[in-house]
Request: fold
Amino acid sequence: MKINAKALALALGIIWGVGVFIVGMVNLFWPNYGADFLELLTSIYPGYKGTSTLSSVLTATLYSAVDAGLFGLVIGWLYNRLARCLPGPEKSGS
Reply:
């Protein structure tokens, strides 16, 4: 069975981007919320400073959506390659 790598990339990009956006937006109102998580993102995404501004939240959201999208594309591609090479379960003819 093949997986649609583009759909996986889009789904992961949206999910991770929305998650980072929500944490960033809540952090604007409650600065302690997700502070450690956002600080971690500063070490992963170049140019993201972790400051509590709307532009910083949007930068992190963009970085995370692209990052997860590329990751999903690679996972989908790798899955399809391995699915072709490895034997699958035996099909029973009922």
